[in-house]
Amino acid sequence: MPVSDTVARDDTDAEGDRLPINELFASLQGEGKLAGVPSTFVRTSGCNLRCWFCDSFHTSWEPTHAWMGLDEIVAEVESLSPEHVVVTGGEPLVHDETDALLSALADDYHLTVETNGTLETDAPVDLASVSPKLASSTPTPENAPADVDPGVWTERHENARVDLDALASLVERAAEFQLKFVVTGRGDLDEIESLVADVRGVADREVRDSDVLLMPEGQTREQLARTRTEVADLAAAFGYRYTPRLHVDLWNDAPET
Protein backbone atom coordinates (compact mmCIF):
# COMPACT_ATOMS: atom_id res chain seq x y z
CA MET A 1 0.00 0.00 0.00
CA PRO A 2 2.08 2.94 -1.20
CA VAL A 3 1.22 6.17 0.57
CA SER A 4 2.09 9.39 -1.23
CA ASP A 5 -0.77 11.79 -0.59
CA THR A 6 -0.54 12.22 3.17
CA VAL A 7 0.79 15.23 5.04
CA ALA A 8 4.36 14.84 6.20
CA ARG A 9 4.94 15.20 9.93
CA ASP A 10 8.04 15.52 12.11
CA ASP A 11 10.21 12.42 11.92
CA THR A 12 9.40 11.13 15.41
CA ASP A 13 5.83 12.42 15.73
CA ALA A 14 4.25 9.04 16.44
CA GLU A 15 0.72 9.09 17.83
CA GLY A 16 -0.03 6.63 20.61
CA ASP A 17 0.26 3.05 19.39
CA ARG A 18 0.46 4.07 15.74
CA LEU A 19 3.29 4.24 13.23
CA PRO A 20 3.77 6.38 10.12
CA ILE A 21 3.75 3.84 7.30
CA ASN A 22 5.03 4.77 3.86
CA GLU A 23 4.60 1.32 2.25
CA LEU A 24 3.52 -2.18 3.25
CA PHE A 25 3.92 -4.86 0.59
CA ALA A 26 5.22 -8.33 -0.24
CA SER A 27 8.21 -8.84 -2.52
CA LEU A 28 11.66 -10.47 -2.51
CA GLN A 29 14.40 -9.36 -0.16
CA GLY A 30 16.85 -7.70 -2.51
CA GLU A 31 19.93 -7.31 -0.34
CA GLY A 32 22.13 -9.04 2.19
CA LYS A 33 22.35 -12.56 3.54
CA LEU A 34 18.68 -13.23 2.79
CA ALA A 35 18.65 -11.89 -0.76
CA GLY A 36 15.94 -13.62 -2.78
CA VAL A 37 13.79 -14.64 0.21
CA PRO A 38 10.06 -13.77 -0.10
CA SER A 39 9.39 -11.09 2.51
CA THR A 40 6.78 -8.63 3.67
CA PHE A 41 8.17 -5.11 3.95
CA VAL A 42 6.86 -2.64 6.51
CA ARG A 43 8.41 0.72 5.60
CA THR A 44 8.11 3.44 8.21
CA SER A 45 8.56 7.11 7.42
CA GLY A 46 11.05 9.38 9.17
CA CYS A 47 14.83 9.23 9.60
CA ASN A 48 17.46 10.80 11.83
CA LEU A 49 19.99 10.98 8.95
CA ARG A 50 19.91 12.31 5.39
CA CYS A 51 22.10 10.31 2.99
CA TRP A 52 22.42 12.10 -0.32
CA PHE A 53 21.83 8.82 -2.15
CA CYS A 54 18.83 7.71 -0.04
CA ASP A 55 16.76 5.26 -2.08
CA SER A 56 13.60 5.96 -0.06
CA PHE A 57 13.38 9.73 -0.58
CA HIS A 58 9.81 9.91 0.70
CA THR A 59 10.77 8.50 4.08
CA SER A 60 13.61 10.93 4.71
CA TRP A 61 14.00 14.11 2.67
CA GLU A 62 10.26 14.46 2.06
CA PRO A 63 8.56 12.00 4.43
CA THR A 64 5.05 10.95 3.48
CA HIS A 65 2.93 8.35 5.21
CA ALA A 66 -0.38 7.23 6.64
CA TRP A 67 -0.72 6.61 10.36
CA MET A 68 -1.59 2.97 11.06
CA GLY A 69 -2.38 1.31 14.37
CA LEU A 70 -0.23 -1.63 15.42
CA ASP A 71 -3.18 -4.05 15.19
CA GLU A 72 -3.90 -2.75 11.69
CA ILE A 73 -0.29 -3.30 10.62
CA VAL A 74 -0.22 -6.83 12.06
CA ALA A 75 -3.48 -7.66 10.28
CA GLU A 76 -2.09 -6.39 6.97
CA VAL A 77 1.08 -8.47 7.45
CA GLU A 78 -1.03 -11.54 8.25
CA SER A 79 -3.00 -11.06 5.02
CA LEU A 80 0.19 -11.59 3.01
CA SER A 81 2.04 -14.86 2.42
CA PRO A 82 5.72 -14.45 3.40
CA GLU A 83 7.05 -15.85 6.66
CA HIS A 84 9.81 -13.23 6.71
CA VAL A 85 9.03 -9.63 7.67
CA VAL A 86 11.43 -6.74 7.07
CA VAL A 87 10.85 -3.60 9.13
CA THR A 88 12.60 -0.79 7.32
CA GLY A 89 12.48 2.92 6.62
CA GLY A 90 13.67 5.62 6.76
CA GLU A 91 14.98 4.63 10.14
CA PRO A 92 12.36 2.50 11.89
CA LEU A 93 14.01 2.72 15.30
CA VAL A 94 13.31 6.46 15.62
CA HIS A 95 9.79 5.37 16.62
CA ASP A 96 9.24 3.79 20.03
CA GLU A 97 6.25 1.92 18.62
CA THR A 98 8.56 -0.08 16.33
CA ASP A 99 9.64 -2.14 19.36
CA ALA A 100 6.01 -2.94 20.11
CA LEU A 101 5.41 -3.95 16.49
CA LEU A 102 8.42 -6.26 16.51
CA SER A 103 7.25 -7.87 19.75
CA ALA A 104 3.77 -8.38 18.29
CA LEU A 105 5.19 -10.17 15.22
CA ALA A 106 8.01 -12.10 16.87
CA ASP A 107 6.20 -15.37 17.59
CA ASP A 108 5.01 -15.90 14.03
CA TYR A 109 7.64 -14.39 11.70
CA HIS A 110 11.34 -14.16 11.02
CA LEU A 111 12.10 -10.49 11.65
CA THR A 112 14.72 -8.37 9.93
CA VAL A 113 15.26 -4.78 11.01
CA GLU A 114 16.96 -2.48 8.52
CA THR A 115 18.73 0.25 10.49
CA ASN A 116 21.50 2.80 10.09
CA GLY A 117 23.04 1.65 13.37
CA THR A 118 22.68 4.85 15.38
CA LEU A 119 19.83 3.64 17.62
CA GLU A 120 19.34 0.60 19.85
CA THR A 121 16.41 -1.75 20.38
CA ASP A 122 15.48 -4.28 23.06
CA ALA A 123 12.86 -5.90 20.83
CA PRO A 124 13.28 -9.43 19.42
CA VAL A 125 15.18 -9.34 16.11
CA ASP A 126 16.24 -12.36 14.05
CA LEU A 127 18.51 -10.39 11.70
CA ALA A 128 19.83 -6.93 12.45
CA SER A 129 20.68 -5.54 9.03
CA VAL A 130 22.92 -2.66 10.05
CA SER A 131 24.03 -0.17 7.42
CA PRO A 132 26.54 2.22 9.02
CA LYS A 133 26.83 5.43 7.05
CA LEU A 134 30.23 6.44 5.70
CA ALA A 135 31.59 9.93 5.16
CA SER A 136 30.71 9.56 1.49
CA SER A 137 27.00 9.52 2.45
CA THR A 138 26.97 13.05 3.89
CA PRO A 139 24.80 15.46 1.88
CA THR A 140 26.35 18.62 0.48
CA PRO A 141 25.05 21.32 -1.86
CA GLU A 142 26.92 19.55 -4.66
CA ASN A 143 25.52 16.03 -4.22
CA ALA A 144 22.09 16.56 -2.60
CA PRO A 145 19.00 15.34 -4.48
CA ALA A 146 17.58 17.69 -7.10
CA ASP A 147 15.74 20.70 -5.69
CA VAL A 148 16.89 19.88 -2.14
CA ASP A 149 19.01 22.22 -0.02
CA PRO A 150 20.74 20.05 2.61
CA GLY A 151 20.97 23.03 4.97
CA VAL A 152 21.59 21.92 8.55
CA TRP A 153 21.63 18.26 7.50
CA THR A 154 25.22 18.39 6.27
CA GLU A 155 26.52 18.94 9.80
CA ARG A 156 23.76 17.02 11.58
CA HIS A 157 24.23 13.92 9.42
CA GLU A 158 28.02 13.99 9.70
CA ASN A 159 27.88 14.33 13.49
CA ALA A 160 25.30 11.57 14.01
CA ARG A 161 26.10 8.97 11.36
CA VAL A 162 28.22 6.64 13.57
CA ASP A 163 27.44 5.53 17.13
CA LEU A 164 29.72 2.73 18.28
CA ASP A 165 27.68 1.96 21.40
CA ALA A 166 24.53 1.48 19.30
CA LEU A 167 26.42 -0.61 16.73
CA ALA A 168 27.80 -2.87 19.46
CA SER A 169 24.35 -3.27 21.02
CA LEU A 170 22.73 -4.23 17.71
CA VAL A 171 25.49 -6.74 16.94
CA GLU A 172 25.28 -8.32 20.39
CA ARG A 173 21.51 -8.52 20.88
CA ALA A 174 20.14 -9.76 17.56
CA ALA A 175 20.05 -13.47 16.81
CA GLU A 176 22.06 -12.72 13.64
CA PHE A 177 23.49 -9.54 12.16
CA GLN A 178 25.11 -8.13 9.07
CA LEU A 179 27.08 -4.92 8.58
CA LYS A 180 25.99 -3.74 5.14
CA PHE A 181 27.94 -0.83 3.69
CA VAL A 182 26.80 1.22 0.71
CA VAL A 183 29.99 1.65 -1.33
CA THR A 184 30.49 4.53 -3.73
CA GLY A 185 34.06 3.57 -4.70
CA ARG A 186 37.52 2.45 -3.59
CA GLY A 187 37.84 5.52 -1.38
CA ASP A 188 35.28 4.08 1.06
CA LEU A 189 37.32 1.01 1.96
CA ASP A 190 39.75 2.65 4.40
CA GLU A 191 36.83 3.91 6.48
CA ILE A 192 35.06 0.54 6.26
CA GLU A 193 38.19 -1.25 7.47
CA SER A 194 38.58 1.24 10.33
CA LEU A 195 34.93 1.08 11.37
CA VAL A 196 34.83 -2.73 11.28
CA ALA A 197 37.92 -2.75 13.51
CA ASP A 198 36.24 -0.31 15.89
CA VAL A 199 33.10 -2.45 16.12
CA ARG A 200 35.22 -5.54 16.76
CA GLY A 201 36.93 -3.62 19.55
CA VAL A 202 33.73 -2.75 21.41
CA ALA A 203 31.27 -5.56 20.61
CA ASP A 204 31.14 -8.59 22.87
CA ARG A 205 30.59 -10.84 19.86
CA GLU A 206 32.71 -11.99 16.97
CA VAL A 207 32.37 -9.96 13.79
CA ARG A 208 33.51 -12.21 10.95
CA ASP A 209 34.52 -10.97 7.53
CA SER A 210 31.48 -12.88 6.23
CA ASP A 211 29.27 -10.61 8.38
CA VAL A 212 30.54 -7.57 6.46
CA LEU A 213 28.74 -6.93 3.18
CA LEU A 214 29.68 -4.47 0.46
CA MET A 215 26.78 -3.18 -1.62
CA PRO A 216 27.12 -0.93 -4.69
CA GLU A 217 25.49 2.50 -4.53
CA GLY A 218 22.84 2.95 -7.17
CA GLN A 219 19.09 3.45 -7.31
CA THR A 220 18.61 2.41 -10.95
CA ARG A 221 19.94 -0.34 -13.21
CA GLU A 222 22.01 2.22 -15.08
CA GLN A 223 23.64 3.49 -11.88
CA LEU A 224 24.35 -0.03 -10.63
CA ALA A 225 25.91 -0.94 -13.96
CA ARG A 226 28.55 1.70 -13.27
CA THR A 227 29.39 0.55 -9.72
CA ARG A 228 28.68 -3.15 -9.23
CA THR A 229 31.82 -4.62 -10.82
CA GLU A 230 34.18 -2.35 -8.89
CA VAL A 231 32.41 -3.13 -5.60
CA ALA A 232 32.43 -6.88 -6.32
CA ASP A 233 36.15 -6.70 -7.03
CA LEU A 234 36.70 -4.80 -3.76
CA ALA A 235 34.76 -7.43 -1.80
CA ALA A 236 36.91 -10.18 -3.31
CA ALA A 237 40.13 -8.26 -2.64
CA PHE A 238 39.32 -7.46 1.00
CA GLY A 239 37.67 -10.77 1.91
CA TYR A 240 34.20 -9.36 2.55
CA ARG A 241 30.89 -10.45 1.05
CA TYR A 242 29.33 -8.77 -1.96
CA THR A 243 25.61 -8.21 -1.92
CA PRO A 244 23.56 -7.41 -5.00
CA ARG A 245 20.50 -5.18 -5.12
CA LEU A 246 18.14 -7.70 -6.71
CA HIS A 247 15.10 -5.44 -6.51
CA VAL A 248 16.90 -2.84 -8.64
CA ASP A 249 18.13 -5.45 -11.11
CA LEU A 250 14.63 -6.91 -11.44
CA TRP A 251 12.34 -3.90 -11.15
CA ASN A 252 14.62 -0.87 -11.49
CA ASP A 253 13.41 1.92 -9.16
CA ALA A 254 9.73 0.95 -9.07
CA PRO A 255 7.84 1.39 -5.76
CA GLU A 256 6.81 -1.64 -3.69
CA THR A 257 9.97 -3.56 -4.56
Which secondary structure elements does this structure contain, and how are they paired or packed?
Layout: E1 18-28, E2 38-44, E3 66-69, H1 70-78, E4 84-88, H2 97-105, E5 110-115, E6 127-130, H3 153-160, H4 164-173, E7 176-183, H5 189-202, E8 212-216, H6 221-238, E9 241-242, H7 246-251
Parallel strand pairs: 2-4, 4-5, 5-6, 6-7, 7-8, 8-9
Antiparallel strand pairs: 1-2, 1-3
Helix pairs in contact: 4-5
Number of strands: 9
Give the low-confidence spans.
Answer: 1-14
CATH superfamily: Aldolase class I
Approximately how much helix is present in the residues?
25-40%
What is the level 1 CATH name? Alpha Beta
Please tell me about this protein's structure.
The chain has 257 residues and is of the alpha/beta class. The chain is 29% helix and 20% strand. The chain has 7 helices and 9 strands; from the N terminus they run E-E-E-H-E-H-E-E-H-H-E-H-E-H-E-H. It has helices at residues 70-78, 97-105, 153-160, 164-173, 189-202, 221-238, 246-251, and strands at residues 18-28, 38-44, 66-69, 84-88, 110-115, 127-130, 176-183, 212-216, 241-242. Strands 3-1-2-4-5-6-7-8-9 form a 9-stranded mixed beta sheet. The chain is globular and about 45 Å long. Pfam families: Radical_SAM. Catalyzes the complex heterocyclic radical-mediated conversion of 6-carboxy-5,6,7,8-tetrahydropterin (CPH4) to 7-carboxy-7-deazaguanine (CDG), a step common to the biosynthetic pathways of all 7-deazapurine-containing compounds.
List keywords for this structure.
alpha/beta, 7 helices, disordered N terminus, 257 residues, 9 strands, TIM Barrel
